[in-house]
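Holo prediction — 6-O-phosphono-alpha-D-glucopyranose.
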Amino acid sequence: MCGIVGYIGNKKASPILINGLLRLEYRGYDSAGIATMENDKIKLMKNKGRVNNLYKLDGIDSLVGTIGIAHTRWATHGKPSKENSHPHVDNSNSFAVVHNGIIENYHELKNFLVEKGYKFVSATDTEVIPNLIHYYFMQDKIDDNKKILRAVKNTCSDLKGSYAIEILSVYNKDKMIVVRKDSPLVIGKGNGENYISSDIPAILSYTKDFYLLDDNEIVELSRNDVKFYNQDLKEIQKAIKSIEWNALSAEKDGYEDFMLKEIYEQPRAIRETIGAKLDNGTIEIEDLDFSKDYLKDINKIYIVACGTAMHAGLASKYTFEKICKIPIEVDIASEFRYRDPLIDEKTLCIYISQSGETADTIAALKLAKTKGAKTLAISNVIGSSITREADYSIYTHAGPEIAVASTKAYTSQVVLLNILAMYFAEKLERVEKDIIKNLKSDILNLPSKIEETLKDTNQIYEFAKKVYKEKDMFFLGRGTDYAVSLEGSLKLKEISYIHSEAYASGELKHGPIALIENGVTVIATMTNKKLLEKSISNVQEVVTRGAKVLAVTSEDIKNDGISEIIKIPKTNPLISPILSVIPMQLFSYYISKEKGLDVDKPRNLAKSVTVE
Ligand code: G6P
């Protein structure tokens, strides 16, 4: 989704801005642009397509300005085109703006401005912003150094929706203003220079010191200073946060694609997510202090998220139910937020978000807070918006995930959720201690089992080569094998554009079996010994109807017409998705490569969905 970069300092801004945009490419976009301050005038360059198209524009090298803003756009209002790409300027070319988010009332604001004589050249919602700032600036008769700030403040009070905005102005050519509401924005502090971005990795090679903006804060940046204001333009102080990630961890590191690199990073991501949590007699999780009395009274736990993060919730539900004996409901954030869920102060709501910036998940969290529930966020990004909203936050330590299709974030989330369930279970004492003890040791063995799973991938590659031209596939499983099938099916759709469906094996006879015919591909996961016989019967039902079956299993099964058996190490069925998902990730990856697709940046998708 849209990305923002900004620079104010003494160096030429354009290379820094373009470099930042390249690092944001993974978020998904369709056009790119920059604006720099050149001899007291705003110079704008933008183009449809990749950042490379921007880079190729004549004159881009001649930009020498040391202040600039830049943007990659993912179209929401108005098709992808040069006119609709950002930055947008007001009619007098005095204010240039880049914007992430959606201005919901832009029609109304546009009509107001048109009545005042303003003209519009794009179909975007964003174009109202520079014009509205210009309008308020011109209305203001006080000529002091807060005049632009006031114009920005007045503009923001008119805007409904979400925004992260950078503003460049000829009226204040050595400064830049930024503001955010419900859309991420960070300031990177340098020496005699400052950076801005919607996403930490874009500017991580320049600084590790960040200010994380909160909603409705307005920031005025100069080369040597960063001033923060609240909505009433009262100056406020903010602390710097140092980020541990290094810039290298956001590079491909010899791998052909980020996705492949991230698949192979899973053993490390899981080791780091486990950290020292299981080192002592009882589990300790930093920043969590749930008492037995509180846990005992919980009437329900909601796990709410989107996409892969929601699948991580589904895969972990079994553990919570089994060892905590608390009813769990896993919900899609965009559904949860609008369906008036039954929540009270005895409900615990857990929100999972790799980025911590997914608009629907944040809104779902805010809703639960208004109903008095306790909220707990699980994120991969320290200081992300969701963690600043939640009552409690805990982190996966997967490192930056760049590929749009999530891999290491998923497995890290499932691990962390299982550890959280054990942390609750130890306090609740509703199951025998040995159940928890065994699960702990199974979790500690996961990283080396993932390494084993990743050792030989040839079988998966060969099977992918056989089936990559197909149009439909099916994923089957029972229990946690069903939960992981949903994720396998999503991966396939996301990066190979093959239609696929995941079904609980027992549901096969209730409809989907009608679609099984000669040559159809089925991915069947069977890791639970107790359910093995039933699962094998289901596989036979599709084999007899001519399906090509790829079986993912930790058990010794006969091949009985199965095309390929992928053997993975045995583990506790509660955490088997962490192993069984790996062949599925690789399967989708190889199919995508075989089809010659862009694995890391699949069409129409965005890494971080910061609008509804
Ligand atoms: C997008 C991404 C998915 C991700 C989902 C939730 O759809 O393409 O990979 O699972 O958002 O993202 P989050 O950052 O909230 O985990």
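READOUT: The chain has three domains: 2-249, 260-444, 454-594.
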